[in-house]
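**Polypeptide and fold**
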Amino acid sequence: MGFFVWRQNNVGVYDAKRGVYRSGSAMRGVSDVLGIHKGTGKFIAVEVKVGKDALSDYQIVFLKRVQEAGGVAITARNFVDFQAEIEAFLASCSGQIDKSNEL
């Protein structure tokens, strides 16, 4: 089953002619990795944080909106915690998975 995911690029782009960074075109606070669980169609958002890096207010709001819409919102500080969150999600899906669209 698995997930269909992609890396969402949220950083600004450097404009060499002007010598400044231009804002990215994505909504502020959008998570680093977005995707869909193939079996349930549930949306997943993963915000990756390293070290002392903290969620911004925009990221907190985005993750809250994902949860309110029935999606899965994860803040991943390391792989072990990320894997535990995914496994908990998969366990909660027991009996909900639609295999009719399996390739």
The chain has a mean pLDDT of 87. The two ends are 9 Å apart (CA to CA). The longest helix spans residues 79-92.
